[in-house]
Specification:
With about 400 residues, the chain is an alpha+beta fold. The chain is built from seven helices and 20 strands. Helices cover about 35% and strands about 35% of the residues. The longest helix has about 30 residues. The radius of gyration is 47 Å and the shape is elongated. About 5% of the residues have low confidence.
Length: about 400
């Protein structure tokens, strides 16, 4: 029995001896020009409309009437809301009163020479001029009589004071007239015109806002409730009539549904293989297995914020759904789940097995074999297949590279 065991061990050792060290044996690959198909990409996404327009309140307002149901298809310029805004209507009335006052003030300045203020000031000047002249003559007579010893010194001084007062009053009246007349100058007229123009613009702006209280659809499409905020669960806006809307607060959304897109998030390693116009097959989960044709409409160059410690960035990609059959379009709704598949594309060039690529920090290289020795060679990579990657720079046809396990 022992001799049988020794015989088996000897045979096994002999087999290993002649076969050589299989594990750890270095394998090489000779690079050549090839033609293969790129790796197929598949992503889950959501059906979205081509455009969404937000309707906001033009002022602090409440709803008097709502002329639609959420989910309806509305036409452009269709009346949707009748709003009430006491605050806005009050501001408009005040602005109209201010405009009337400013317009009257401007008209008065344009005819300032014949205004009551100027005529009254001119009348006072003429009156005081006459009184001053009379007081002067009376004082001159009193002075002569005083010098002749006919009147007392007290009477003389009283007439002198009266004459001086009348002269002073006359001078003040002339200065006041001059000041009043200046108010009708071109400068003051120009200021009044600017004041009228400013209040007129304010009235026009407020009138426009009041007109906007009858809110009409800016575009045709499906009308939806505004996005919910916080803990609000009224997704169909059933309490709109009890809501006071602040200025610029969202009241409804209108989704233009002439065209639909699928929105997907593609990670940075796959997005480099996509391009605008690239065809795709789209499967809307709720509508069965019938594929729809589409093509990439937009690739957002700004990455989304990373979440939960994920290092790889992802990018928003919009795929236009083309030629939707009428029966499917009737059932297609925003928010439906969809799967997008980008078909493989033919790749031609220096295709190297992925096992030959080494990633080190910020560099990418292969181990190039020359004279039975290997050295690092940095490379620039392109699109990939399941097992191969296209190399743009760093190697040439005929080079040998090390394959890593």
């Amino acid at each position: 029995m022992d001799s049988l065991i020794r015989f088996k061990i000897t045979c096994i050792a002999f087999i290993f001896l002649i076969s050589g060290p299989i594990l750890g044996e270095e394998k090489h690959y000779t690079i050549e020009n090839k033609k293969m198909f790129s790796q197929s990409l598949q992503y889950d996404g959501t059906v979205i409309p081509c455009n969404v327009v937000e309707m906001v309140s033009p002022s602090l307002a409440t709803i008097k009437a709502k002329h639609f149901n959420f989910g309806d298809y509305v036409e452009k310029d269709q009346l949707l809301f009748d709003l009430s805004s006491i605050e806005l209507e009050t501001r408009l009335n005040q602005a109209k009163m201010e405009l009337l006052e400013n317009s009257q003030g401007l008209e008065k300045l344009k005819n300032w020479k014949t205004s009551h203020e100027v005529l009254q000031a001119q009348y006072n000047v003429n009156k005081l001029k006459e009184e001053s002249s009379h007081a002067k003559n009376h004082f001159e007579q009193t002075r002569k009589l005083f010098e002749a010893g006919i009147v007392s010194r007290e009477e003389y001084l009283a007439d002198k004071r009266h004459h001086s007062d009348k002269q002073h009053q006359y001078q003040e009246a002339r200065e006041y007239l001059s000041d009043i007349q200046k108010k009708g100058s071109k400068r003051f007229v120009k200021l009044a015109e600017l004041k009228v123009e400013t209040t007129k613009q304010q009235v026009e702006m407020l009138s426009s806002k009041v007109a906007m209280l009858s809110m009409r659809a800016p575009v045709s499409g499906m009308i939806l409730p505004p996005q919910r905020q916080g803990d609000v669960k009224d997704s169909w806006g059933l309490s709109l009539n009890q809501t006071v809307f602040q200025e610029s607060q969202p009241m409804a959304l209108i989704a233009e549904v002439e065209q639909f897109y699928v929105h997907v998030k593609v990670d940075e390693f796959d997005v480099i293989h996509l391009a605008k116009g690239l065809p795709a097959h789209i499967f809307v989960v709720a509508l069965g297995k019938q594929p729809l044709n589409g093509k990439i409409h937009e690739i957002n160059v700004q990455p989304n914020a990373t979440e939960n410690g994920r290092k790889a960035a992802n990018f928003d990609v919009k795929i236009l759904i083309e030629n939707i059959p009428a029966k499917m379009k009737e059932k297609l709704l925003m928010g439906m789940s969809a799967m997008v598949k980008f078909e493989p594309r033919a790749l031609e060039g220096l295709l190297v097995p992925k096992k030959a690529i080494v990633y080190e920090k910020e560099s990418v290289h292969v181990n190039l074999v020359q004279d039975d020795k290997s050295r690092k060679q940095e490379v620039v990579l392109g699109e990939t297949t399941d097992d191969y990657v296209l190399v743009y720079e760093g190697v040439k046809a005929g080079d040998r590279v090390v394959l890593h396990s």
